[in-house]
Amino acid sequence: MIDKRDAKLSLFFLSISFLALFIGAIAGLLQTLVRSGTIELPLSIGYYQLLTAHGVLLALIFTTFFIVGFLYAGISKTMGALYDVPRRTGWLGFVMMTFGTILATIFILLNKATVLYTFYAPLQASPWFYVALVHVVVGSWLCAFSMWNQYYIWKKKTNNKLSPLFSYMAVMTMALWFIATLGVAATILLQFIPWSIGWVDKIDILISRTLFWYFGHPLVYFWLLPAYMCWYVVIPKIIGGKIFSDALARLAFVLFLLFSIPVGFHHQLLEPGISHSWKFFQVVLTFMVIVPSLMTAFSMFAVFETAGRKKGARGLFGWVKVLPWKDVRFFAPMMGMLIFVPAGAGGIINASHQLNQVIHNTLWVTGHFHLTVASTVALTFFGIAYWLVPYLSGRTLTPQMNKLGIIQTIMWTIGMAFMSGAMHVVGLFGAPRRTAYTTYSDHPQALDWVPYQAAMAIGGTILFLAILLLIYIIGYLAFKAPIGEMDFPLGEVEEKATSTPIILENWKLWVGISAALIFIAYTLPFWHMIEHGPPGSPGYKFW
Ligand code: HAS
User: Fold this and answer.
1) Total-model pTM
2) For the segment 250-277, what is each residue's pLDDT rounded down to a tens digit?
3) Correct CATH for 4-531 of 1.10.150.80, 1.20.210.10, 3.40.50.12780, 2.60.120.620
4) Smaller CB count within 10 Å for the chain: N or C?
5) Are the beta carbons of 424 and 369 closer than 8 angstroms?
6) CA–CA dist 119, 121 (Å, integer)
7) In which residue ranges of the chain is pLDDT below 70?
8) Which protein residue's CA is at the shortest distance from atom 12 of ligand 1?
9) 348 CA → ligand 1 middle, Å
10) From 54, 87, 209, 217, the catalytic residue
């Protein structure tokens, strides 16, 4: 068991995360039913209002709180109890993030921040919504500082020993997060807040979208990396195997830091104002960021196969049979891994410049991110929660809850297959995303989309039931399950693996290269945006 005070901090983060998941899921269910034309909303609640609540609470709040809680637990487990300053800073971060979340939720529910989770200008929210976001971001920075501080003190106390793999990955994840959020902080502070208060009457849309996507793409790897931490570090232990290579795992994380940020233009491939050559350059870098995921797939196959062979598995795929399919701690993340194969392929299609013209702004993209963040990442997080919550609350994962967890995972997988599958197909037929039923129901093609919309509604309903089951299991594990000792599964590295080169912990080098790549990929195109900005825009005046 980790230090009780750290367990409490981690549990507080996880609680807000599951609360956000629950409210966001209600919005999700209503919105699929509205979009499929199944129900009409009462009390003048709007479709876009629900879409904003769903996106903000699930994509931004559920994930960030869960990730920070998970990282604190793992850091305390692998580097020992948090030192005083890091723990206090962590609590301060928690308070700021929670305050920001409550404020943002109130303004969304009041219909004063119906701007979707991407808050694209010229959609405008109340200034309080942006102030709320600042609190969430700055609070998360405090958590990042606190984790780095813990790492720094630990390194000093251990005479610069090689850090534990989990903690190294946590430090890297928060480094990626910090560099990425600088973009969104800049657009909120310099553009959205002055504009929403009325200090300036115009906003440069291209610049705001560019700063958002500078943040938006690494954001998806901020979600993915903690799932990869579970795959690399936790899964080997659960299946009775070993970590294939510590060095390879660290290298994959370094590559994410380098290549996940200077690629935001692949979300803006169809936008005017950015030259083709810069878009092409960032597409090339996007293909580079696929490499660490391929390394991860390779590494996981190696772990599964070597563990299987040790258990006597034979033949090319004999190891598949000896995996612990009945253990939800493995089963849920494994479903996430399997789903990531088509999900990743979809991402490669999105990034492929011309193919992007076919899918951009269609429901295909919504399908893509429901397979990635809402399946691969979410299922892995659920799999973590099934052992982490009882571990932190001093209880046990009972066989009955394990069974319910497996049912929950199957429901999630089936629900998502319906919903995301239908979104992918109907997206190829041209069905638009971010669009209410009423705005396109007269479209001549809309009739062709009806069966797929029904499939989305069926999938969405199954997913909602799966969330209810999840909340029940998590509640039971936190408050009702028998008191006992759980294991925090942490794999050991394969004896034959090569030792880890010390250069992988040279932060100045990796952060320096990351900054250089960002500089190369963004400076000139950004300069062009300012140079050719619309006269009278705040950006134009500013420069
Ligand atoms: Fe994406 C849009 C490109 C990955 C999330 N993406 C989005 C949006 C979100 C999102 C939220 O280039 C929409 C944003 C919005 O609101 O507009 N995406 C990619 C690429 C990848 C990718 C190239 N995306 C993700 C991940 C996400 C995510 C991960 C969340 C967590 N995405 C795009 C593009 C767009 C986009 C364009 C813009 C589209 C547009 O026009 O608007 C890559 O990182 C994917 C690489 C992944 C792989 C898969 C590796 C497989 C593994 C599993 C192995 C399995 C095992 C099990 C070991 C190459 C690691 C085997 C076991 C057995 C028993 C067989």
Assistant:
1) 0.94
2) 999 999 999 988 888 888 888 888 888 8
3) 1.20.210.10
4) C
5) no
6) 6
7) 36-39, 41, 438, 441, 535-543
8) 351
9) 7
10) 217
